[in-house]
Amino acid sequence: MSGSILQLLNRVVSEIGLDLSVDKMEKFVLFADELNKWNRKINLTSIADDRNIALKHFADSLLASQVLAETANLLDIGSGGGFPSIPVKIALPGLQVVSVDAVEKKILFQRHIARILELEGVSGVHARCEELQGIYGPRFDGIISR
Length: 146
Description:
By secondary structure, this protein is α/β, with parallel strands linked by helices. The chain is built from six helices and four strands; from the N terminus they run αααβαβαβαβ. It has a four-stranded parallel sheet with strand order 3-2-1-4, with helices on one face.
């Protein structure tokens, strides 16, 4: 991710009222780099250029952090490459996230990115949402899907 894109993300984050530390911004840079690397091998997202990753994935996802409590339990249905769950988790580290997608390779990427970003409290689940009731029941404070 180029410096100009990092500046763009900084501006957008500021405009939506978030104050992200340097460490959190570095996590977004690493996330974008890994997304681009994996996307060359497997189709995670059609949005592949840095500018649109910053705007259409990161900034769009971060809007959800405006309405979530830091310690909420969030279910992200159909999360694909980890959107919006991973950016929201970066912004709100106390958030507990269960990210669900029916495509296993996307969940494998999410588990990988959560591991290298050292995000605790993120579970990537390869399943369809209708299968979740018996596993999780009504334990979520919020459910999100893009």
